[in-house]
């Protein structure tokens, strides 16, 4: 398997509490991989470690063949982009300016792109506006968007960085069913050809989106497999899915 992301024996403690207990995980290049598990399992903590917000106490993190263990976010930003559970858009900037900042920041972090003309940066931002369906709101302040539109902008910001690996933390949280369905269609369309690792509690979303699913329970990955195999896995049913898997 050509791995876009590899986690080897990841351990994280907060005081005497062991949140992650030796996590091993591989995400193949180009796949959509979901990470599921009960609250408190350590999913967002794992995202914090991958994206450089915190350091693991033990283990290795490798992205696109490069060891990024303990590297700060600005050092790993050319390899991965992350959205958070709550929207992180710049409310005082327009929708277009949010996307342009992401595209400009990505170009500045890569030597090959550092001297891209302003026109090319604008083209990237406009292309992402079209992709996320917000072209008509380009000049609107991001703070004035609906919640679902802000989450779409979050996705656009992550994609505008052109990072090969995208981490999405509960992208449909707080949405009604119709909004979540549209968000999933958007994610599916815009991440085509990218590697996606997504945390999501909506099981309909997970089983409809992911190529493979990993289940994190009490700081350990207890299973990684196809959606059908995960749904039928008795250990997963007992630990997390319960009636959802039946």
Automatic annotation (TrEMBL):
Gene3D superfamilies: P-loop containing nucleotide triphosphate hydrolases. Residues 5-243 form the ABC transporter domain. One of its GO terms (cellular component) is plasma membrane. One of its GO terms (molecular function) is ATP hydrolysis activity. Keywords: ATP-binding, Cell inner membrane, Cell membrane, Membrane, Nucleotide-binding, Transport. It holds the Pfam family BCA_ABC_TP_C. It comes from the Bacteria. PANTHER family: CONSERVED COMPONENT OF ABC TRANSPORTER FOR NATURAL AMINO ACIDS, CONSERVED COMPONENT OF ABC TRANSPORTER FOR NATURAL AMINO ACIDS-RELATED. This is ABC transporter. The lineage of its organism: Bacteria, Pseudomonadati, Pseudomonadota, Betaproteobacteria, Burkholderiales.
């Amino acid at each position: 398997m050509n791995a876009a992301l590899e986690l080897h024996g990841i351990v994280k403690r907060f005081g005497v509490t062991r949140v992650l207990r030796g996590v091993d995980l591989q995400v193949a290049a180009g796949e959509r991989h979901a990470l599921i598990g009960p609250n408190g399992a350590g999913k967002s903590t794992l995202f914090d470690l991958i994206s450089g917000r915190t350091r693991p106490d033990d283990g290795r993190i490798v992205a696109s063949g490069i060891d990024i263990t303990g590297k700060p976010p600005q050092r790993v930003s050319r390899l991965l982009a992350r959205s958070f559970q709550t929207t992180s858009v710049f409310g005082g900037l327009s929708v277009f300016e949010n996307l342009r900042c992401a595209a400009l920041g990505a170009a500045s972090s890569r030597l090959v792109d550092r001297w891209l003309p302003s026109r090319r940066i604008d083209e990237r931002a406009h292309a992402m506006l079209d992709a996320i369906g917000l072209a008509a709101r380009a000049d609107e302040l991001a703070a004035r968007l609906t919640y679902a539109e802000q989450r779409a902008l979050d996705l656009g910001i992550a994609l505008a960085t052109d990072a090969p690996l995208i981490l999405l933390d509960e992208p449909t949280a707080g949405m009604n069913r119709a909004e979540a369905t549209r968000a999933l269609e958007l994610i599916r369309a815009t991440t085509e050809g990218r590697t996606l690792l997504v945390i999501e509690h909506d099981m309909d979303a997970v089983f409809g989106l992911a190529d493979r699913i990993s289940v994190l329970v009490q700081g350990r990955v207890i299973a990684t497999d196809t959606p059908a195999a995960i749904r039928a896995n008795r250990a997963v049913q007992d630990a997390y899915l319960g009636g959802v898997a039946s």
